[in-house]
Design goal:
Blueprint lengths: L26 H5 L15 E7 L5 E7 L1 H5 L3 E5 L23 E2 L5 E7 L2 H10 L1 E6 L6 H4 L22 H4 L4 E9 L11 E9 L11 E6 L6 E5 L4 H12 L6 E4 L15 H12 L3 E4 L2 H7 L5 E10 L5 E13 L5 H10 L9 E10 L13 H19 L3 H8 L18 H11 L2 H6 L2 E4 L2 E14 L3 E8 L5 E5 L8 H13 L6 E4 L17 H28 L6 E4 L3 E4 L2 E7 H10 L6 E7 L3 E2 L6 E3 L3 E2 L3 E14 L5 E11 L6 H20 L5 E2 L2 E2 L19 E6 L16 H4 L1 H13 L10 H12 L6
Parallel strand pairs: 1-12, 10-11, 14-15, 19-20, 29-32
Antiparallel strand pairs: 1-5, 2-4, 2-6, 3-5, 7-15, 7-26, 8-13, 9-10, 9-12, 13-14, 16-17, 17-28, 18-19, 18-24, 21-22, 22-23, 25-27, 28-29, 30-31
Helix pairs in contact: 6-7, 10-11, 10-19, 14-15, 15-16, 17-19
InterPro entries: Ald_Oxase/Xan_DH_a/b, Ald_Oxase/Xan_DH_a/b_sf, Ald_Oxase/xanthine_DH-like, AldOxase/xan_DH_MoCoBD1, AldOxase/xan_DH_MoCoBD2, AldOxase/xan_DH_Mopterin-bd_sf
Organism: Archangium minus
Pfam families: Ald_Xan_dh_C, MoCoBD_1, MoCoBD_2
């Protein structure tokens, strides 16, 4: 009985590889369920790890008794801080132990770890550990934490290794992880020149990342060399390598990190402590250990977005020129600094918004509290400040009798102007984004028809202008020509579900005139991959794509040098042809395939064709001639990108429930690499922003997390998300990205909350100053508008 061969994948046409909706490289394995994630993996003799969290938000550890746990059959290792090197870790401040040392600083903080033959035994052992605590006074509000007499969380704060610019003001506050002050113009003298002033306090919540795959690590230790190998769900194999080596006091050369498929991260898997803890368990047990957190443990022990309180005052002249802004921003960084000081830096840097406001006074804090540590999360401090800023711009438009888009257009930064701090705006496309948003959303008609759609329900439409950055820190890549003329691309970048592997392979294919099937894209492994800092900061396509195309350009030059001799033509007359061919311009019959050139190089002359490239986005120093700066010496965040987001909502005036009806998200992507991936990023970012705006919030009572589960933490579901979220791509190639591409991942979330809340005010006249805009909060805003209740 014969079988017809299964059809192979349809070759991707060359020549038009950029801008097409190319299927992802891993699509088939994911949709068939064959994709391997960390928790799918097993090793011979593997044990299971589990963590014990603190029951108190702030308490001194008086004693441990692990004897009962160690005596349980099947338990192979029990660790507390006393069993680990006394090394603190952290991306900015070295302030966090792997397991709580001396005292605990938030409920759920890991205090002990166990490895056992199965998960049930490990969890039973956790219950058998006896830890005695002395409960200490706690502080849960960051502004209260800055007041005299507040409980001090880090008594040794001034002794921590600190990678940020230190300001005298911050050192005077032991609960401050950072303090920044930026002043431009004469903000104290200009308010009398403002014809309209708006002022309020805005609050944004701690949002949980809710990646589909909880944190998971599988660690093994080579018995002979002691080398630790980690398979882990991470956004950076190199950051895991560094933090594991640092925490355990071993050389980085003795730590290997491999990333299998990763089920999301959004900033929550950038620098974690679960990996070195798992490695420590494997070393103690003498066997491989896998630790996959439950959803509840993940939410109690890992990270969140920074909750934030923003005091903002903005003034404008009657002709619609925004003249002055004063801002005080307080980020709740939780028990440990993590990325908090950098998040505060971004918040301060974007507090002026994407506008030319000549007089500003910005003060920003990242403050320790006895809550879960906060860290990187899509947008990195910018969604919080944009919520306040874009709400106030709308209020100014209302008071001035101007259309909200028109007011933004009058003040939008343009190419050649300077951002707060003096950095040049190299591609100022905000006006183009706003004009496209107005056209696509039929803004004028919808805005003029504020209407009751049915009894007790009203519709409104709102807008937000967005400025963000693309690119950050360092990347490298290696490109090698294989014997058959195909190409292997190797980077350390981790695809966390956004499709970067495919987009980066497209960059290589486009640079060399190949089809996607001729590109072998190699996954991240610290033993063999070139360095990449992290998948985050809207940087992967921009930064890694840049080094890949640079390496491909070197390969092209090597190809041309060989082909010049093989074809007896000068290099200047050669050209790349589709499919892996070097030809002579104007001579269709004169050509040589990549494979022949590779064979010549490998066996006759010169050696293998291989090239590497590296890049570090240069930090931009604060121009002290323009800006008085304390606590922030430079910004290394990258190339400015712009967007405009419009939302139409319906508000139930009886219940306060808000429903998103339709949305338009316009982004200047520079050059589209993979259209479907870019559009998917925009739609996904908008939905994540929808949760930030309307439903998502970590809730605590006396420091105890009340909703650490998917059933009690309200992520938008399919019924909450309209079909009509329209991603609109503008292409203004510019900057250092591959083929002029710019990033889109984070910026797609940044303006969603203010666009929705501005739509709520258009529908009802009520101003929401605290999100998520739950039914209760919207009703309070409605009552405040009518003067019958207090605004929250």
């Amino acid at each position: 009985m014969s079988h017809s061969p299964k059809p192979g994948p349809t070759p991707t046409p060359v020549g038009d590889i950029l801008g097409r909706s190319v299927p992802r490289l891993e699509a088939r394995e994911k949709v068939t369920g064959r994709a391997v994630y960390t928790d799918d993996m097993t090793l011979p003799g593997m044990l299971y790890g589990a963590l014990l969290g603190s029951p108190h938000p702030h308490a001194r550890i008086l004693s441990y008794d692990t004897s009962r746990a160690r005596a349980i059959p099947g338990v192979k290792a029990v660790l507390t801080a006393e069993d680990l090197p006394n090394h603190r870790v952290g991306s900015v401040l070295k302030d966090q132990p792997l397991l709580a040392r001396g005292k605990v600083l938030h409920e759920g903080e890991p205090v002990a770890a166990v490895a056992a033959v199965d998960l049930q035994t490990a969890r039973r052992a956790l219950q058998a550990i006896d830890i005695r605590y002395e409960v200490l006074p706690a502080v849960f509000d960051p502004e209260e934490a800055l007041r005299p007499g507040a409980p001090v969380l880090h008594e040794q704060r001034d002794t921590y290794l600190d990678f940020q610019a230190v300001s005298p003001e911050r050192a005077n506050h032991p609960n401050a992880a950072s303090h920044i002050r930026l002043i431009e113009g004469e903000p104290d003298r200009v308010w009398e020149r403002c014809d309209v002033i708006v002022e309020d306090v805005y609050e944004t919540p701690a949002q949980q990342h809710i990646y589909l795959e909880p944190c998971s690590t599988l660690a093994s230790v080579d018995r002979d060399s002691g080398k630790v190998t980690l398979y882990t769900s991470t956004q950076s194999v190199f950051r895991v390598q560094a933090i594991t080596a640092e925490a355990l006091g071993i050389p980085m050369s003795r730590v290997r990190v491999i990333a299998p498929r990763v089920g999301g991260g959004f900033g929550g898997k950038t620098e974690m402590t679960n990996q070195p803890i798992t490695a420590a368990l494997a070393r103690a047990a003498g066997a491989p250990v896998k630790m996959t957190l439950s959803r509840t443990d993940d939410m109690r022990m890992m990270k969140s977005r920074h909750a934030c309180r923003i005091h903002m005052r903005t003034g404008a002249t009657r002709d619609g020129r925004i003249l002055a802004r004063r801002v005080r921003i307080v980020y709740d960084t939780g028990a440990y600094a993590d990325d908090g000081p950098y998040v505060a830096g971004v918040g301060a840097y974007f507090a002026r918004g994407p506008y030319r406001i000549p007089h500003v006074d910005i003060e920003c804090w990242a403050v320790y509290t006895n809550r879960l540590r906060a860290a990187a999360f899509r947008g990195f401090g910018n969604p919080q400040i944009h919520f306040a800023s874009e709400t106030q711009v709308d209020l100014l438009a209302e008071k001035l009798g101007l259309d909200p888009i028109d007011l933004r257009l009058r003040n939008a930064l343009e190419t050649g102007e300077r951002w707060l701090g003096g950095a040049p705006v190299e591609s100022g496309t905000l006006q183009a984004c706003l004009e496209k948003a107005r056209e696509a959303s039929d803004w004028v008609r919808r805005r003029s028809q504020q209407r009751a759609s049915s009894p007790g329900k009203r519709r409104g439409i709102g807008v937000a202008a967005v400025g963000h950055v693309s690119g950050l820190l360092g990347s490298s890549a290696t490109v090698r020509l294989n014997e058959d003329g195909t190409v292997t691309v190797n980077t350390g970048a981790v695809d966390i579900g956004q499709g970067s592997d495919t987009a980066l392979a497209q960059c290589a294919a486009a640079a060399l005139g190949l089809s996607l099937e001729q590109i072998n894209y190699s996954g991240p492994d610290t033993d063999v991959s070139p360095y990449d800092w992290c998948t985050g900061g809207t940087r992967t396509t921009f930064t890694v794509g840049r080094v890949i195309t640079q390496a491909c350009e070197q390969i092209k030059q090597q190809l041309f040098e060989h082909a010049s001799e093989m074809l007896s033509r000068p290099v200047q007359q050669l050209e790349l042809r589709p499919g892996g061919i070097v030809g002579v311009q104007g001579e269709p019959g004169a050509s040589v395939p990549f494979g022949a050139i590779s064979a010549r190089a490998l066996y006759f002359k010169g050696g293998p064709l291989i090239a590497s490239s590296r890049y570090l986005f240069p930090p931009t120093p604060i121009d002290t001639r323009q800006t008085s700066a304390q606590g922030l010496a430079s910004m290394g965040n990258g190339f400015f990108v712009f967007a405009a987001q419009v939302a139409e909502v319906e508000v139930d005036e009886l219940t306060g429930k808000v429903e998103l009806l339709e949305a338009w998200s316009v982004h200047d992507v520079g050059r589209t690499i993979n259209r479907a991936a870019a559009e998917g990023q925009i739609q996904g970012g908008f939905v994540q922003g929808l949760g930030f705006a309307l439903t998502e919030e970590l809730l605590w009572h006396e420091g105890h997390l009340l909703n650490p589960s998917m059933s009690s933490y309200k992520v938008p579901g399919a019924p909450d998300v309209p079909v009509g979220i329209h991603p609109l791509l503008l292409e203004h190639p510019s900057g250092e990205g591959p083929f002029g591409a710019k990033g889109v991942a984070e910026v797609s979330l940044v303006g969603v909350a203010p666009a929705i809340c501005n739509a709520i005010r258009h529908a009802t006249g009520a101003t929401v100053t605290r999100i998520p805009a739950t039914g209760e909060r919207v009703l309070r805003a409605l009552l405040a508008r009518e003067g019958t209740g207090a605004k929250e």
